[in-house]
Amino acid sequence: MSDEAPKIIVDDDWKAQAQAEKEKLAEQARAAKAESASAGADSGAAPDGSGAPGGGERQMPAASFETLISTMTTQALFAMGAIPDPQTGQRMAHMDLARHHIDMLAVIEEKTKGNLSKEEADLLANTVYELRNRYVQLTMSQRPTA
Q1: What is the pTM of this model?
Q2: Domain boundary assignment for the chain
Q3: Among 30-39, 54-63, 118-127, where is mean pLDDT lowest?
Q4: How far are the Cα atoms of 46, 72, 73 from residue 65, in angstroms, in the given order?
């Protein structure tokens, strides 16, 4: 047996690659931020980045699965009267339209099964569940009592 300690060879090459990739991604993020800032300035957007040129307009949210679900949920809640009409301030109940939006979310849930992350699947399942419960509560409360 040898009294020499075993030599440990550390491959620092992967560290250099990881650092280079990190720096490249950071540079791309800075370039994208600078590009969006200059695009906002060209369009007359507010300096605070809100996209509002001085009025009340806002930037569009990023296109994502969460935004899709949020948009459809908002439409269903609006149709159920949970959200007042922004122009009139009145709450209107269009239960057939609300049911349509809920059914569309259920179609998305069925057609994307197995293709979503756990967070996306949970968001969709919980949203459909909550909207269905609210819909049932509202339709039950609107039925005439005999």
Answers
A1: 0.58
A2: 11-58, 65-142
A3: 30-39
A4: 27, 11, 12
